[in-house]
Amino acid sequence: MLELAILGFLYDAPLHGYELRKRITALTGHVKPVAESTLYPAIKRLEKAGLLGRATEPGAVAAPRHVLTLTEEGRRELRRRLAEPAQQDITDENRWFTVLAFLRHLDDAPAQAGVLRRRLAFLEEPASFFYDGERPLRAEELDDPFRRGLLTIARATSRAELAWLRETIASLDD
Amino acid sequence: MLELAILGFLYDAPLHGYELRKRITALTGHVKPVAESTLYPAIKRLEKAGLLGRATEPGAVAAPRHVLTLTEEGRRELRRRLAEPAQQDITDENRWFTVLAFLRHLDDAPAQAGVLRRRLAFLEEPASFFYDGERPLRAEELDDPFRRGLLTIARATSRAELAWLRETIASLDD
DNA sequence: CCGTAATACCTCGTAATCGATGTATTGTTC
DNA sequence: GAACAATACATCGATTACGAGGTATTACGG
């Protein structure tokens, strides 16, 4: 998720680590903050893997900046990760939102539609959080107001997203 | 999140690891699967911390089972974690849903309402995923259909949850 | 001129997680 | 009767993440 965000932001423009951190914080930080001690090692990993390069520039205000740029391999890697997301990128909302935030970079309508279809298939599977043996329990069947709320919220989310997915897939298919 | 789920399920009834795993998979597995190699060490951690005890019973079908029971300290710990969730339990949907799934165990309406109020306050903060400098961007301002969808979905979810939270807090306050 | 905040980067130890793999038993299917 | 799935638990190494702490500079208010 973090690596995807790094690649995604750098696809648009070279950035230094500190700026990258602010953008990632704006994107996902209110939900799941990213520690600096996670970001900088992640940058190093990607650099070591040849996905990005760095150039040192004098800092605008303080210490010198390490401006990060995607290599051609890095650009390919982002497109690959967007075109073939891991299953958890599809099912986990946090990760899925990160995929959505950068999916435009895929720049290939059928491939984009394919990714949306995977999410659609996932949301269309009948799934609950609570079961009576095999049978999924409906919100109305639960005494617990909190679990009932959980199902209610999940269903509302799902309905909104399904509508958007169907609409967007249709428009990509044109 | 995993530890909370373990404590939460065991609060109701003693279970062996394998059964625990099935319940956790039903609860959160379609979104974020839990590997066995994560669950068993987590059980050991909690056991070592004195939160749960184990008793070996002959297996119903195969190998002997380790039936896990919450100790009194484990029961206190669950209530404590539910009454004072970490900030990420409030903001991260996956973790928040786990809190909701077990919040009834808190068994104290004002404390439950307090937890819901924290989530309410979080959702009421104006937050976007995309910014123009300081100013949060609205869905309508984005060209990118995927980012627009992301905001649309997030807003729909948020609206549904806000309604439920306000309603439930009101009924807990009676 | 002193403290604080912001900019900008980094390391270290610890903890958590995962995938792969291993062990042993019972029940079911070909 | 030989596979195979399901039950039931466990370890190990590699990866990832986090909190705490560190370094250095500029800008600003008191």
Give an overview in words.
Chains A, B: This is PadR family transcriptional regulator. Chains A, B: Pfam families: PadR (PF03551). Chains A, B: It comes from Streptomyces cylindrosporus. The structure is a homodimer of 174-residue chains. Chain A is mainly α. Chain A has two domains: 82 residues, Arc Repressor Mutant, subunit A (Orthogonal Bundle), CATH 1.10.10.10; 66 residues. Chain A has eight helices and five strands, in the order αβααββααααββα. Chain A has a three-stranded antiparallel β-sheet with strand order 1-3-2. In chain A, strands 4-5 form a two-stranded antiparallel sheet. The relative contact order of chain A is 0.11. Chains A and B meet through helix 2, helix 6 and helix 8 of A and helix 2, helix 6 and helix 8 of B. The structure holds a DNA duplex (30 and 30 nucleotides).
Short structural description:
Helix content of chain A is 63%, strand content 10%.
